[in-house]
């Protein structure tokens, strides 16, 4: 086993810091980190270099992060899915054994979106269509076992309908598939579709949150709960590191990340993109992580979607092994 013990020079950081982003370029975790990277040198004394490692519903990138040396030179963009994926099977990064939360950045509400030229005006319309045309409705999402995939499966189970899930490696691909008509429905964070909504190309039917948004463009979108379905998903973003980070490094990173997140330009750019900023330091973020783990584990168990998602993941792995795609 590789020895991950390290000696940290007092002048840390003495070189650029790599941030692993487990989705394709253009996704919300990617954009959030790139916004922060513009201010990194100012507050950390070194730049942040972004490297995209998509695949496996983000597990490929997170597994790589967990296996990296805890020397402060490899960080990772983390999100709600990092909790969910552990509920479907073994991963290398299971918290708290392999990763350390550093900073909670903010959150993005999940929405159900369709093309504006479709006849569906609300969730009831969508459910009625799916009931009359079993298996005809395809929904896109950002990877097997991801939070948005879980929302789609919760929707199908609670509504009692048969819809087909189509996984992608990032939000850009999900929205492109919807726009081109390859899928008829997308479960995605709202920032990914806001420009399409603004241009009247996409209609948002429901919000997976406790309350409606105050954002003008989405303030009239009802929640799933308002439409009779108990579907809530808090899609948060953050920064983490491999477990075993020396305290001096952890403290420097935490202070630097806090300063970056509160930088005026970063705040503006995050708001423009639609990220609802809420900074939490290592201790607070850890507490949130543990609380969310308990909450989501309960939700996944009660809805029974874990078994369905595991079957889908196994089927996908079988296809890949068989060389059919």
UniProtKB/TrEMBL annotation:
This is Tripartite tricarboxylate transporter family receptor. CDD domains: PBP2_Bug_TTT. Belongs to the UPF0065 (bug) family. Keywords: Receptor. Coiled coil: none annotated.
